[in-house]
């Protein structure tokens, strides 16, 4: 018996339909990303070759991924990586999927580094709550003279972040450390020029209302306590322990937290406090000077 061959267009239609029944957002784009991944080509190139047929192996690989996405596993976990600041960062369910607004945080940190420390040959930057390592990796890539220190409490996140640093050839300039931001280990004199963090900032009571995809990300990467501000407050209060006088603290926060974040930093004696907006025009980043 001759098995009917199935073209790329037909596979896409089938996947689109399957994902729609499971209420996955942007079904067609998801199906196209997954198929492009199987074929190892760009999305537009894949769409242009709609008449081509998939091999049996390609078809079954594609369908395994479609089924995983149908279970509302984030697309980045299904394909295994997330593009971030021009780097392909490996991700697994043990780390948060890096978000586009965090690219804005990296851009701000680069601006601070380049404008405030133009001559510094050995800038020391600390990334608190590194997760996949995306922020530290992007800063190490963009600031070729900087030395990065990246902390997290999750062993599996630190292991993955280190793997990313090795794969991207940045391990020589990033040191990964296990540290609880609520129980910082005692240190000597402040040593960091810049502290940057995308901390967990979602109020505990709001996590249940988020999409099924977000529920597959680590709770510890999301949960900012009752007010959403616990990690932000802890980092701001602890920053002077590591941040040199005159150094800069940059943090990402959730929509609507800006006023409170600014008030906290003001209260702690930070100066030059400014809030920066994301691409949607929403305040999401704070920059402050110790
Ligand atoms: C919002 S995620 C950010 C991850 C990554 N920096 C990014 O931007 O995608 C927050 C990170 O903080 C870490 N974290 C949560 N609580 C922590 C704690 N008490 N001490 C240290 N890290 C913590 C989580 O494991 C998670 O990796």
Concise description?
This protein is of the alpha/beta class and 290 residues long. 42% of the residues lie in helices and 19% in strands. The protein has helices at 8-21, 27-39, 43-48, 56-70, 75-79, 100-116, 134-142, 155-167, 204-207, 219-222, 230-242, 258-267; strands at 81-84, 87-90, 124-128, 147-152, 174-178, 192-197, 243-252, 271-277, 283-289.
Overview of this structure, please?
With 290 residues, the chain is α/β, with parallel strands linked by helices. It has 2 domains: 8-71, Orthogonal Bundle (Helicase, Ruva Protein, domain 3); 92-289, Rossmann fold. The chain is built from 12 helices and 9 strands. The protein has helices at residues 8-21, 27-39, 43-48, 56-70, 75-79, 100-116, 134-142, 155-167, 204-207, 219-222, 230-242, 258-267, and strands spanning 81-84, 87-90, 124-128, 147-152, 174-178, 192-197, 243-252, 271-277, 283-289. The strands form 2 sheets. The chain has a 7-stranded mixed beta sheet, sandwiched between helices. A hairpin with a 2-residue loop joins strand 1 and strand 2 (87-90). The mean pLDDT is 93. Bound molecules: S-adenosylmethionine. The site of S-adenosylmethionine (SAM) has 22 residues, from helix 7, strand 4 and helix 10.
């Amino acid at each position: 018996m001759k098995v009917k061959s199935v073209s790329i267009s037909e596979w896409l239609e089938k996947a689109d339909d399957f994902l729609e029944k499971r209420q996955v957002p942007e079904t067609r784009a998801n199906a196209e990303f997954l198929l492009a991944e199987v074929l190892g080509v760009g999305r537009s190139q894949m769409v242009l070759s709609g008449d081509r047929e998939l091999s049996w192996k390609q078809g079954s690989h594609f369908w395994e991924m479609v089924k995983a996405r149908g279970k509302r596993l984030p697309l980045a976990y299904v394909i295994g990586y997330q593009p971030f600041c021009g780097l392909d960062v490996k991700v697994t369910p043990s780390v948060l999927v890096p978000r586009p607004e965090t690219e804005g945080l990296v851009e701000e940190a680069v601006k601070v580094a380049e404008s405030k420390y133009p001559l510094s040959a050995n800038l020391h930057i600390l990334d608190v709550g590194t997760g996949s390592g995306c922020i530290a990796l992007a800063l190490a890539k963009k600031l070729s003279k900087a030395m990065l220190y990246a902390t997290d409490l999750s062993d599996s996140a630190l292991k993955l972040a280190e793997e990313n640093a090795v794969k991207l050839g940045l391990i020589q300039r990033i040191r990964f450390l296990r540290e609880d931001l609520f129980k910082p280990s005692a240190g000597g004199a402040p040593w960091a020029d810049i502290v940057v963090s995308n901390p967990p900032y979602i109020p505990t009571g709001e996590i249940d209302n988020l999409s099924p995809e977000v529920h597959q990300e680590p709770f510890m990467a999301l949960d900012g306590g009752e007010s959403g501000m616990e990690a932000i407050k802890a980092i701001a209060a602890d920053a002077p322990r590591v941040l040199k006088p005159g150094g800069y603290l940059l943090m990402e926060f959730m929509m609507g937290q800006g006023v409170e974040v600014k008030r906290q930093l003001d209260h702690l004696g930070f100066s030059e406090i400014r809030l920066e907006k994301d691409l949607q025009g929403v305040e999401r980043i704070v920059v402050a000077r110790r």
